[in-house]
């Protein structure tokens, strides 16, 4: 019985760490929507846009938006956003990696050839350097439209 419980616990935590879609639905979809399309002028889209962030070398920036939040005016596809993205650093490194991989490969988003999937170690390395939401804004690639 004890072992069964242990196995159940282990398999549950593996499932949480790996299921980026579920974790996205619980932690991101209220703002960025299940479709990833966001809400114009309130919550920026990730569908059709996250790949641009990656291609512009915004990998560390993306990890940090989730870990430490983001505050500062941005433009996405010509629309302005000046809300605040809350810090979601209470999520585990593995969950954050799984969510970002879900976002990178959903809604016709695709990882650019030059990029590999996000890993928990990568998230851990960014977590080690604390930032304010304003400092995260400064990490945003300048070329993004
Ligand atoms: C409470 C609403 C809210 C939640 C929940 C939320 N976000 Fe955000 N997100 C925002 C807002 C608002 C912005 C834009 C902030 C600004 O303009 O400073 C943003 C910005 C971003 C950006 C940067 C987009 C860009 O073009 O620079 C990324 C990436 C992102 N969010 C991903 C996520 C992920 C992944 C999750 C879930 C782990 C998440 N967000 C959860 C509201 C939210």
UniProtKB/TrEMBL annotation:
It holds the Pfam family Cytochrom_C. Residues 15-107 form the Cytochrome c domain. Residues 1-17 form the signal peptide. Keywords: Heme, Iron, Metal-binding, Signal. The keyword Iron applies. Transmembrane segments: none annotated. This is Cytochrome c.
């Amino acid at each position: 019985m004890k072992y069964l419980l242990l196995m159940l616990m282990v398999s549950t935590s593996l499932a949480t760490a790996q299921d980026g879609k579920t974790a996205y639905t619980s932690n991101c979809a209220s703002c960025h929507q299940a479709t990833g399309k966001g809400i114009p002028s309130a919550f920026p889209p990730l569908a059709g846009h996250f790949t641009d962030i990656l291609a512009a070398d915004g990998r560390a920036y993306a990890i940090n938006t989730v870990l430490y939040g983001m505050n500062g005016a941005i433009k996405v596809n010509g629309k302005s956003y000046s809300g605040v993205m809350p810090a979601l650093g209470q999520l585990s490194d593995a969950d954050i990696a799984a969510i970002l991989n879900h976002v990178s490969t959903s809604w016709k988003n695709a990882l650019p050839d030059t990029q590999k999937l996000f890993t928990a170690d990568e998230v851990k390395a960014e977590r080690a350097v604390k930032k304010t939401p304003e400092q995260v804004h400064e990490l945003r690639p300048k070329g993004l439209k």
